[in-house]
Amino acid sequence: RTPTAGASVSAVDDFGVQRQFRVEAHDGVKTLFDAELNVQTYDFEFRDPVLASEQLPGDAIHAGASDFSGSAVSAHANACEVSRYMREVLKRANIDNQSGRMTSSINCVDGSDSPDGKQWLNAFWNGSQMVYGQRIDGAADMLSMSAALDVVAHEMFHGVTDKTSRLVYAQQSGALNESYSDIFGIIINNQQEPDARLWNWALGSGLLPGGDPFRDLSNPGKFGQPDHMTNYKKLPNTRAGDYEGVHTNSGIHNKAAYNMLTGTGSGAKPVLKPREVAAVFYLALTQHLAPTSQFRDSRNGVLSSARSLFRKDPPAERELKLKVIGDAFSQVGVG
Ligand code: ASN
Ligand code: ZN
């Protein structure tokens, strides 16, 4: 018997992009598990994870001579990418900050939600792992909701929020919970482009039939979200009301993040680097917010984080950064 060992492999993801990722190899069988990052991906084989009779995460994914499916590659490679961003940029060791296992399940369906019991255009963090549905266009054409890195990062940051501030998933704290996930989703998805004015601000591009995304941080109104407190939607605090519109009112806080990332003061270029914005939001989320925090608390937490992170900057630079942040929130009516 040969011992299990890490191996780097290359395969095509659900968007048709060649990805490199690590697996465990044993006697010619590869398993979708990166032991170094502690990221593992499972197949739920078109069962409904909400049913009491079904047990997540499902089956480990193996490949011999044949390749891994595009859906499996997407979920695994994207989770590994978020793990690396957490480690390298945020100095966080995975979702639990203790290098704990990060688990994803693909091919999940919602039997009650989809007529064929197979198509389920959503993804969620269930309190301990990521769960992904998929789009099915015909017999063989399938796209996992894990294909989009921004969606994967969004779900994984629900895990980070769960382990840190524990923002209650209703009303303003719930909209903050949603917005922090959107913000890290977009920042991680655009990490290769240093100038945020050139970013793709849409979340979930290419996932839905027709390819339309579902939110846009630069233009929340495009998907029916408010971008200012004067248009805060007072939906009922019920499941049907999305708990007072946590996926709607998040647009206000998302737009503040967009303003922060693109704000130039009176200069020619954005004042804050994306990694600086990531750092101040991360510090705010993990150190300054609490379960019942409101939009105003996020503004104060982000400003406090910026004051401590930029304390060694020349005073004029620090003041400019703080002004861009304050203005970003004031422009959406969070004063
Ligand atoms: N995709 C949705 C989200 O992460 C599902 C949910 O948990 N409401 O917000
Ligand atoms: Zn969410």
Description:
Belongs to the peptidase M4 family. This is Neutral metalloproteinase. Keywords: Hydrolase, Metal-binding, Metalloprotease, Protease, Secreted, Zinc. Extracellular zinc metalloprotease. This protein is an alpha+beta fold. The protein has helices at 70-88, 149-163, 171-189, 242-245, 250-262, 274-288, 295-309, 315-330, and strands at 5-12, 18-26, 29-31, 33-34, 39-47, 59-60, 62-63, 102-108, 123-125, 130-132, 134-137, 141-144, 202-203, 215-216. It folds into 2 domains: 5-147, Elastase, domain 1 (Roll), CATH 3.10.170; 167-330, Neutral Protease Domain 2 (Neutral Protease, domain 2), CATH 1.10.390. The chain has 8 helices and 14 strands. A hairpin with a 4-residue loop joins strand 4 and strand 5. Helix 3 (171-189) runs parallel beside helix 5 (250-262) and helix 6 (274-288) packs across helix 7. The protein is globular, with a radius of gyration of 20 Å. Bound molecules: asparagine (ASN) and zinc ion. Zinc ion binds next to helix 2 and helix 3.
Bound heterogens, unique: asparagine, zinc ion
Biggest beta-sheet profile: 6 strands, mixed
Overall body shape: globular
Order of helices and strands: EEEEEEEHEEEEEHHEEHHHHH
What's the count of strands? 14
What low-confidence regions span 5 or more consecutive residues with pLDDT below 50?
Answer: none
What is the radius of gyration computed over CA atoms, rounded to a whole number of angstroms? 20 Å
Relative helix content: 25-40%
